[in-house]
Amino acid sequence: MAARGPAQDDVLIVGGSLVGLSAAAFLGHHGISATVVEKHAGTSIHPRAGYFHIGTMEAYRRIGLEPAIREASEEQFGPDGGINLVESLAGRELARFVDSINAGVEPYSACRRFFMTQQSLEPLLHRRAAELGADLHYRTELIGFEQFDDHVVAELRDLASGETWRTRAKWMIAADGNRSAVRQALNIAMHGPGLLSDSITIYFKADCRPWLDGRQLGVIYVANADQRGFFRFEAGGTRGFLAVNTLGDLSLPGATDVAGDTSPERCVALVRSAVGVPDLAIEIEDVATWKATAECAEAYRQHRVFLAGDAAHVVPPTGGFGGNTGVQDAANLAWKLAAVLNGEADETLLDSYEAERRPVGQLTVEQAYARYIRRVTPEEIGPDTPELLDELTMEIGQFYRSNAVAEGRREDEPACLHPDHTRGRPGARVPHAWLEDGRSTLDCAVNAPVWLAGPDAVPESGPYETVRLSPETAERCGIGPAGAMLARSDGFVACVVRAA
Ligand SMILES: Cc1cc2nc3c(=O)[nH]c(=O)nc-3n(C[C@H](O)[C@H](O)[C@H](O)COP(=O)(O)OP(=O)(O)OC[C@H]3O[C@@H](n4cnc5c(N)ncnc54)[C@H](O)[C@@H]3O)c2cc1C
To answer: Whose CA is closest to atom 30 on ligand 1?
Structure first.
């Protein structure tokens, strides 16, 4: 085997899609140049993820990507699309789940939810990761690895030349997707409801503008006699995809095996039925098969290897949790790895990654599953179907209990709670409030932890800068005029000091 590549990387990231690229950019922001290996020739060629949560935009805001994302998103989609359920685009609306994705968000965040195809987001992430020092290698596959006390040895293959070589890294992040070979090699099992359907996504061009009728809809669920699934449109309604999860009648044999027949005739028929126009002119661009699955890994780490994104949790797309949860994993892990590699923290800090992110992953699997049952196969609702938690709770209500938080979430509290109920509690996200200089409280600790202190708080000694809050802002943050909170650089509260 040829010797090639750097003798020692700090972090090797396996998988250069949404989560791997995000991890590389977040690490770069904290001064760590990661190496990314991706077996495909470039960034994603399919739209896939399209609905992005507030917490995701907040993470990208911290690395300076918000303006570019907002601009690109508004070129593709309306900024505030809704989510509904129809029997067909031309037919009856059966339910309206969300009128406008950003209704009610303003008091909670400086950021907004957005729609954007994964295939246009990934190049922005790639560029930012490279600007911040990441070393990105396409057509490069991880074919094996071995862990040692203080490093990992990875075996890589250049898929163009066939050449193989070994490289060392202090830490490895497996962002290699739902079939993660790294997770399998580590024998980490997945738990949860499991496979829900063998689904397909049909990418097509067709002029559907007459039936969209100017409506701003980011996701349109479809349920009729032929199918259950959802549309997402781009370019004003002339291009998009139809994801089909099941047949219309769940009692039919093979009802959940839509992927069993992906012939062009069937795909055209499915799109026509979902639009509700039997002779619609359609150009099928591509068809992807995938498994709608709900399960979470039983561990997020083994020694020097961390799982992130779909490698750690797989969910059906209902609710748009998959990619978003992965981006949050990456944001959580990046500053911790950087703190250890920069000598600012010892390795025990890394224990907090699994302690914080796995309970959130498990709850997310449960909630995505609950949304799938309620929106796609409601006849399967039963006494065991989990109650739905609201979107703000799931998006910015992560509530951590770990050694990176002093007196965080109690053991009997859920992994996500509405931000109104965790205001000023260690382990919760820092509440958003505008400061007099135009920044959000969430903008203060972007590079390093910062004390957010009420006007009467006694200054904290130690290495961290203090930002003084007005009495109103201190109240809004739940600490009062004499309290202070230490904001971590991922926007979560590490500890709170209250007046004696
Ligand atoms: C139809 C559909 C709609 C969706 N909608 C949404 C949505 O609206 N919002 C949302 O948040 N999520 C959504 N998702 C989910 C989202 O696409 C995934 O959660 C996201 O892509 C996960 O990113 P990842 O980087 O963890 O994994 P992946 O995107 O699967 O990427 C893993 C990468 O690792 C590479 N890789 C694998 N093995 C190796 C190896 N050995 N060596 C090198 N490279 C390797 C692969 O080539 C791949 O590029 C949707 C998914 C589908 C199918």
So the answer is: 177
